[in-house]
Amino acid sequence: MDDRNGFEERLREARTRRGLDKPQPNRGSLPGGSWGIGFRAGVEVVSALVVGIVLGGLLDRWLGTWPWLFLVFFVAGGAAGVLNVYRLFTPRRGA
Amino acid sequence: MAAEGKTIDALSQFELTPVLGIVGHSVGFTQSNALMLLAVGLITGLMMYGMAQRSLVPGRFQALAESAYEFVQGLVTEQIGDEGKRFFPFVFSLFMFILFGNLLGMFPYAFTFTSHIAVTFGLAAVVFVLITVVALAIHGTKFFGYFFPEGAPIWLAPIIVPVEIVSYLSRPVSLSIRLFANMVAGHVMLKVFATFIVLLGGLGAVGPFVATLPLALNIALVGFELLVAFLQAYVFAILTCIYLHDAVHLH
């Protein structure tokens, strides 16, 4: 068993030396090339904006304050979209 | 059908039509529902039939069932940790349902039920309710600290809290739009290039030769769509796991 473990270890080292093993992607990283990442970033921004607009509109209709809360949540939605994209590219905290 | 009027009709493939005759018509049972039931039946059949033998050296179906199980189990334990094991049945059903929905949609004459925002948003809403309930059940009112990071100056709260709430609420929306948009875009592209084949094929003597170009592209697209079918089911499952991780550990 020890021999076999040692062999696996040496094999992995040799493979890493020759660049045969690709470095393992980080935990929590999603697959996807540049198109995938770009598409994901776009979806995050759009969905945050949509949520902000809908939320602001609904609150305005409820409270009768059109268009003030709509404007506030439009900006908040844009900021949340940027925040989502920022979170997409920063590694997750903790483990 | 698509090319009869010399026009490209790429969106009629997403129309719902009732099946099962008059009964289906009266209760609104469409081909989308039929394929959902088929997907559930196939998944259940795969797991039941595959694991019926329980042999030490797995056969084809057992190997398929086991690899699907181990794939999702690895995903769940790696993302959420040991607490994630109790969410395994949920993530597994979600992953298999979306995967089979995407793959069944690749068959000719089949319907892709994941190409409807109502379906994907329904799934994402279930995920959203689950992560909120889990976070509230584990952390109680501390959950609301999620919307205001520790150490931030208190006068920033009116700015940070709405932004964080909108960001949190945008999770199910982005989750559902991603899956829906990928499936719609892929099937529209397939249909458009398939229509090109028919239109170019009718161009007299050179037609059949020119038509091989969109045909070749369509073959490549089918392969690409199979990749997307797997990838989007995987992305949906892994994002569910990431959200569950946030709900369990709350940071």
TrEMBL record, chain A:
<feature type="transmembrane region" description="Helical">
    <location>
        <begin position="37"/>
        <end position="59"/>
    </location>
</feature>
<feature type="transmembrane region" description="Helical">
    <location>
        <begin position="65"/>
        <end position="86"/>
    </location>
</feature>
<feature type="compositionally biased region" description="Basic and acidic residues">
    <location>
        <begin position="1"/>
        <end position="21"/>
    </location>
</feature>
<feature type="region of interest" description="Disordered">
    <location>
        <begin position="1"/>
        <end position="34"/>
    </location>
</feature>
<dbReference type="Pfam" id="PF09527">
    <property type="entry name" value="ATPase_gene1"/>
</dbReference>
<keyword id="KW-0472">Membrane</keyword>
<keyword id="KW-1133">Transmembrane helix</keyword>
<dbReference type="InterPro" id="IPR032820">
    <property type="entry name" value="ATPase_put"/>
</dbReference>
<keyword id="KW-0812">Transmembrane</keyword>
<protein>
    <recommendedName>
        <fullName>ATP synthase protein I</fullName>
    </recommendedName>
</protein>
Automatic annotation (TrEMBL), chain B:
<feature type="transmembrane region" description="Helical">
    <location>
        <begin position="87"/>
        <end position="111"/>
    </location>
</feature>
<keyword id="KW-0813">Transport</keyword>
<keyword id="KW-1133">Transmembrane helix</keyword>
<feature type="transmembrane region" description="Helical">
    <location>
        <begin position="188"/>
        <end position="211"/>
    </location>
</feature>
<keyword id="KW-0138">CF(0)</keyword>
<keyword id="KW-0406">Ion transport</keyword>
<keyword id="KW-0472">Membrane</keyword>
<feature type="transmembrane region" description="Helical">
    <location>
        <begin position="117"/>
        <end position="138"/>
    </location>
</feature>
<dbReference type="Pfam" id="PF00119">
    <property type="entry name" value="ATP-synt_A"/>
</dbReference>
<keyword id="KW-1003">Cell membrane</keyword>
<feature type="transmembrane region" description="Helical">
    <location>
        <begin position="217"/>
        <end position="244"/>
    </location>
</feature>
<keyword id="KW-0066">ATP synthesis</keyword>
<feature type="transmembrane region" description="Helical">
    <location>
        <begin position="34"/>
        <end position="52"/>
    </location>
</feature>
<keyword id="KW-0375">Hydrogen ion transport</keyword>
<dbReference type="InterPro" id="IPR023011">
    <property type="entry name" value="ATP_synth_F0_asu_AS"/>
</dbReference>
<dbReference type="InterPro" id="IPR035908">
    <property type="entry name" value="F0_ATP_A_sf"/>
</dbReference>
<comment type="similarity">
    <text>Belongs to the ATPase A chain family.</text>
</comment>
<comment type="function">
    <text>Key component of the proton channel; it plays a direct role in the translocation of protons across the membrane.</text>
</comment>
<dbReference type="InterPro" id="IPR045083">
    <property type="entry name" value="ATP_synth_F0_asu_bact/mt"/>
</dbReference>
<dbReference type="InterPro" id="IPR000568">
    <property type="entry name" value="ATP_synth_F0_asu"/>
</dbReference>
<keyword id="KW-0812">Transmembrane</keyword>
<protein>
    <recommendedName>
        <fullName>ATP synthase subunit a</fullName>
    </recommendedName>
</protein>
